[in-house]
Amino acid sequence: MSGLKKQDRSLSGEPSEQPAAPPALSPAMQRWLHQLSHEKRYSEHTLSAYRTDLRHLLAQHPGIDPDTLNQTQLRQAAARLHAQGMAPRSLARILAAWRGYYQSRTKELGWPLNPAASLKAPKIGRPLPKALSVDQTQQLLDRPSAPIQDDPVSWRNQAMFELFYSSGLRLSELVSLDTHYHQDSQYQSKSWLLMDDRELLVSGKGGKVRRLPIGEKALNALQQWLTKRTALASLAISADASAALFLGARGARIHPRVVQQELENYARASGLPVHVHPHSLRHSFASHLLQSAQDLRAVQELLGHTNISTTQIYTRLDFQHLAQAYDQAHPRAQRKNRASDKPDE
Question: Which family would the database say this protein is a member of (predicted)?
Fold first, then answer.
């Protein structure tokens, strides 16, 4: 019966429930993406995003050769996307892809001006990173209400999260760590543990390499995990898995999504009333270090930020901490909305 209804609806001229196919990229767009892939070694994730970004442009001007669009038409396309509810951050990425494409066409065709050069997205607000307080971090890692079980997965999780907070790692950096430096015909390490030096050697964004210290708590957790790691390492079937510091339940290098899920469960078992994402531990590392040391350059180096402006956002977190202390301690702060302060009605 349902099949007949669908057939009758299609025969009667009613619209189909299937979404329209995305616009096909022009040959020039396809060549540009091919160049980014093979000459500049862009990741497939980035290339997929660029394809979507270019299709947004084609959808705004259907049936028109994108190479014939002028500056005004491109601005109109961007304005329509914004009016349709496109978030400023997403729109900024889309316009960056458009500028890149038209810059390549400007060079190839000898245009006097890149028509997308002046395209700008609405200003993006920079939200404060979500950092845990020192007490919340200690509650998460010390686990007074849920002691660590003596099994490989429990010790792996404790070592991962201690190391996150101890060294301010990105999630991608944590999962890329090896037990030590490995090199053979099948595999070569990019980031690895230096237990004797109590350090990590990490290859971060843009291939930037940095050495990071390991705190005492993280070091102890790592030593415990390494004694348990062999139980999962025996399941490894690749050179990459054999080298990996942190392994999944089936012996492969642990996946970032597994780390996220385990941390969510870990925070819940610890009784924390807030959602904890892996990057929360990196933010907490930076915020707590800055509160104690007041050395922005040192925090920049430890985080692996290329620009100091990226690190400076943590000074806003530090100011929040100071402002809260002021509100609580200064006898004449008068910044609290207390019922006793309200006039009688």
Answer: Belongs to the 'phage' integrase family. XerC subfamily.
